[in-house]
Amino acid sequence: MALYSGYIAVWALLNPSLMPPPEPRLPFAEKLRQSASLIPCLLLIVLVFAVLVSGWATATECAAWGVLGSLAIAAWSGSLDRHNFWTSVMGTTRLTCMIMLILAGASFMSTSMAYTGIPVALANWVDSLGLSPLMLIAALTVMYVVLGAALDGISMIVLTTVVVLPMVQKAGFDLVWFGIFLVLIVEMAEISPPVGFNLFVLQTMTGHDSNTVALAAMPFFFLLVVAVAIITAFPGIVMWLPRLVFPG
Fold first, then answer.
1. Number of domains comprising the chain
2. Domain housing 113
3. Is the pTM of this model over 0.70?
4. C-alpha–C-alpha distance, residues 79 and 228, integer Å
5. CA-CA distance, 168 to 166, in Å (whole number)?
6. Is residue 124 part of a domain?
């Protein structure tokens, strides 16, 4: 978050002409009054987080809780009517169909890659190098970046974890830390051209061509590379919260 926010702030300072015009200044009391409208959104975030932490719902099922809470907020605020509801349903249907088509293509690609054995062969090749722990992480990062150009994040993890996990344990890395590492790698794969899943979503939402979307996403790709380097050099950044929650 700090890397992304810092990049956006620097970009805004370097490109003031591309920024939207500043909003009119408001007195502090008026800001507090208007901020009250954010309370329902904050309560919705708390609700989704609470059902996830309590175990009432999985991460996927939390989306349904979010939709339910959004409908409740819209009904409470009086903005929920038949037209808005139908517009939301149709927009969701179009977006879901687009995502399902992308997932179908990704599933076909992952099946083809699994049949060829390329991901497992690549993981076995990295294992055969006998690298030091830091070099192992660097090699795995490069390997996943290469795989991310042809596979979606979940597929490449499923196809390589059987080989990668033992070598990571042997190198002495904490598996919780490695899980966070994989999450960052998946996010890198999601915005890596040419088949980054999020690139297709952004292309559909913005109406820009794939090259424009990919170029706009590249700085964030490299910021994720920096994030991987930071958590590798300072693993305590990742581990302090799990150790605080689970001291044993």
1. 2
2. 96-248
3. no
4. 43
5. 5
6. yes
